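Exercise 7.
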Amino acid sequence: GLRQGRAPCAGDGARVQSGQITSIPNFLDPAVPSAQRVTDWFATITNGRIENLMPPWANALSEQQRWDVAYYTYLMHYTPEQVARGAEVFAERCVDCHGESGRGDGPDAAALSGSVADLTDQANMAMLSDSQIFTTISDGVGDPHDGMPGWADELSEDDRRAVAGYVRTLALSSAGPLTMAA
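Solution. The predicted structure, written as tokens, is:
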């Protein structure tokens, strides 16, 4: 941990170093959560992975505590600087449709034929992987003239990833217990 100058949850704790556990994910590596959803992490925390020496936490933590741990560990790979940059880009490019809070109620949203995603809907956002959010930001959704535009040609990859990280934080402001999707 921090006593030896390492970042927490880097997958190199004392049991890994002693050889007691041979494989544990590095939560600071963006590749670890990239294709997984927050709901996948919640399921792992709830049910455990005994084959990897991870105990189930269903009886020890409340549902809200398990969601809190799932989101906390899932988001660890985003730095505060990335989230701050994502907030800047979101304010410049996204608020007209998604609104300042991300609820899909921006001033231009009513003029669109379809609905604008509510990025604060934690249940829906938990079902999306970081890769899916990044692809949506990059490629857009729906009609290019009446849907969400793709930003791949106008924003760097780093900025699009920063927006994905910031968008994740919007769902946390409305955090509450979730029911696992079937």
